[in-house]
């Protein structure tokens, strides 16, 4: 038996990969299948799942309502569609802001002297590995009415003799956007840096020899060659932003409800796992569709592993 | 053309981005020395050392630990100690298991051909392309359905009933950690010179000896950085832990999140500062390892 295993390369490979594959199958794939099954179910009065086959959760999510004001049997309720739309637009905005902040910094690090590069990268890793919840808390302290930003603004305005009333920044959509950009910025810096660093310096020389100025070199050489990093970074930022609920929970108060908050509440407060499962699957489908079309257009960079 | 030339725009933008990255962290650390218990505004440092804590309203006037009052306060907090213990236990167990099985999978995927290879490789990308909350509620559903069934089927009562706890958190963490270990080790194996192994085999070493004496030492730095990455992912995780923890298995991120919804004293800032320090040291260790990994190649 052992002798046969020694000669059978295919069996050896299967055996080596088996624990990981089984683990991922049981804890990632089966849960997805269960979520799908539950999403077709009904909620029992005590918050349990009654298995059935109904599309009610999905029609409710897309606006079908039987709770109508003027005695109609059914009407369109945009509540959940708006939540999905808000999440999508926030994720897109966050990604755009993150790219525009991350690119110059990644470029700066990639063009730094090799001896200094590690230090600059190290400085990106510290905020990245500082706990996610702690980073949201830090922004809560800065954005509060009595917080540091208002304190500094008040001080500056006082110097300039301009009357100043503290700004209400916490619990606004803007606070959520800032929090999201802050949370996910390092996930964009690292892949862009990796792809910029790979560019062969002789390409710049060639561009210069052929008479390109620095702007032209950037647009025709640097930018296209760094696209794999931007693509990988976008995937690493867009997908988690779509599903995150802590940032909106803490910096948005109850004002900014995203699809992540909706799902979390169905499982904890509202106790309707069937509706939560349906919302969760729609979230997954939305991210997969965006990722699919995006990567089909730009390719799937191997830079994704570095972060 | 100087390859290191950067325009003033790039330099100014980078400095601003660094300020953006560090301002919240600096603020957080500063407030950990706040004299104000309510922690809403910064009321200055705690000025004096004294034998007993002296309070004036919500202001700490003096403390046995002086400006480090909130750190001493933190050290006395049993809940924090328990949460820290849980966090580390989960991270250690999950890192060991995910590093072992993840490295095995990397070897299999890089060196062997077998039927389920495409499936194994593809499943590694699930945690990257699916939002964490989707995995979180899926795993929650799996455990609650399975435990409900098992408790009924085996007639488990009282303490014997299966429920969420440290084990469910660790098992779930492994699921999202393994792919990262495997991908990192795979990347390391890709640039691997097979001639060393062939030389060992030519010299009469069998496959096991070759692995132990040649392959493993060469991929060890990759395995170590995969393990460190996995460890930090586990320490940092909020979402999966949020949905899979139970009574007695609160981790630090969950504990902090709970505090943010109630009254926040500068103790949270002290905890955050200690956390940042630990992270700082961990990232340093990772850097040293990676530097060591890079050197033999040049």
Can you offer a commentary on this structure?
The complex is a heterodimer of chains A (307) and B (298). Chain A has 307 residues and is mostly helical. Chain A is built from 13 helices and 4 strands. In chain A, a hairpin with a 5-residue loop joins strand 1 and strand 2. The longest helix of chain A is centred in the N-terminal third of the chain and has 32 residues. The radius of gyration of chain A is 25 Å and the shape is globular. Chain A starts with a helix and ends in a 9-residue tail after the last helix. With 298 residues, chain B is mainly alpha-helical. Chain B folds into 2 domains: 64 residues, no CATH class; 185 residues, MetI-like fold (Orthogonal Bundle), CATH 1.10.3720.10. At the A-B interface, helix 2, helix 4, helix 5, helix 6 and helix 8 of A face helix 1, helix 3, helix 4, helix 5 and helix 6 of B.
Entry keywords:
heterodimer, A: 307 residues, mainly alpha, MetI-like fold, two-stranded antiparallel ribbon, 13 helices, globular, B: mainly alpha, 2 domains, 69% helix
């Amino acid at each position: 038996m052992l002798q046969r295993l020694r000669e059978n390369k295919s069996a050896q490979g299967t055996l080596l990969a088996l624990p990981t594959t089984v683990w991922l199958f049981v804890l990632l794939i089966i849960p997805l299948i269960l979520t799908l099954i539950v999403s077709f179910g009904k909620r029992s009065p005590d918050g349990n799942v009654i298995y059935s086959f109904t599309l009610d959760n999905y029609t409710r999510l897309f606006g079908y309502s039987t709770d109508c004001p003027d005695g109609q049997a059914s009407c369109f309720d945009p509540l959940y569609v708006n939540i999905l739309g808000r999440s999508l637009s926030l994720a897109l905005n966050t990604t755009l802001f993150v790219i525009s902040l991350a690119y110059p910094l990644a470029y700066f690090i990639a063009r730094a002297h090799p001896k200094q590069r590690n230090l600059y990268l190290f400085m990106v890793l510290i905020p990245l590995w500082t706990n996610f919840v702690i980073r949201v808390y830090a922004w809560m302290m800065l954005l509060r009415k009595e917080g540091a930003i208002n304190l500094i603004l008040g001080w500056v305005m006082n110097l300039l003799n301009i009357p100043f009333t503290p700004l209400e920044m916490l619990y606004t959509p803007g606070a959520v956007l800032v929090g999201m950009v802050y949370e996910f910025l390092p996930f964009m810096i690292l892949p862009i840096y990796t792809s910029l660093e790979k560019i062969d310096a002789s390409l710049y020389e060639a561009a210069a020899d052929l008479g390109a100025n620095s702007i032209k070199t950037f647009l025709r050489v640097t930018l296209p060659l760094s696209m794999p990093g931007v693509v990988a970074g976008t995937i690493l930022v867009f997908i988690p932003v779509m599903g995150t609920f802590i940032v909106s929970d803490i910096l948005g108060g109850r004002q900014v409800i995203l699809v992540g908050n909706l799902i979390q509440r169905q499982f904890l407060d509202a106790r309707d796992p069937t509706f939560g499962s349906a919302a969760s699957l729609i979230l997954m489908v939305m991210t997969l569709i965006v990722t699919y079309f995006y990567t089909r257009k730009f390719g799937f960079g191997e830079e994704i592993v570095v972060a | 053309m100087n390859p290191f030339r950067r325009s003033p725009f790039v330099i100014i933008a980078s400095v601003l981005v660094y300020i953006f990255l560090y301002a919240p962290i600096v603020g957080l650390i500063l407030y950990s020395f706040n004299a104000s218990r309510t922690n809403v505004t910064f009321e200055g440092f705690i000025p004096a050392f004294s034998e007993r804590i002296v309070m004036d309203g919500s202001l700490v006037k003096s403390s046995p630990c002086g400006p480090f009052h909130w750190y001493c306060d933190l050290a006395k907090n049993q809940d924090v100690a328990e949460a820290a213990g849980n966090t580390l236990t989960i991270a250690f167990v999950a890192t060991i298991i995910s590093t072992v099985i993840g490295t095995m999978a990397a070897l299999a995927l890089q060196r062997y051909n077998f039927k389920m290879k495409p499936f194994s490789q593809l499943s590694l990308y699930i945690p990257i392309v699916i939002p964490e909350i989707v995995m979180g509620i899926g795993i929650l559903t799996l455990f609650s359905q399975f435990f409900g069934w098992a408790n009924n089927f085996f007639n488990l009562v009282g303490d014997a009933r299966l429920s969420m706890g440290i084990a469910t958190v660790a098992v779930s963490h492994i699921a999202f950690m393994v792919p990262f270990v495997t991908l990192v080790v795979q990347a390391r194996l890709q640039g691997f010179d097979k001639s060393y192994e062939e030389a060992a085999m030519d010299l009469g070493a069998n496959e096991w000896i070759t692995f132990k004496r040649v392959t493993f030492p060469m991929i060890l730095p990759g395995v170590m950085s995969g393990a460190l990455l996995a460890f930090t992912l586990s320490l940092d995780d909020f979402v999966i832990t949020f949905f899979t923890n139970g009574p007695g298995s609160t981790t630090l991120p969950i504990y902090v999140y709970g505090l943010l919804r109630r009254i926040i004293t500068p103790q949270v800032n002290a905890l955050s500062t200690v956390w940042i320090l630990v992270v700082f040291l961990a990232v340093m260790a990772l850097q040293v390892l990676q530097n060591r990994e890079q050197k033999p190649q040049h």
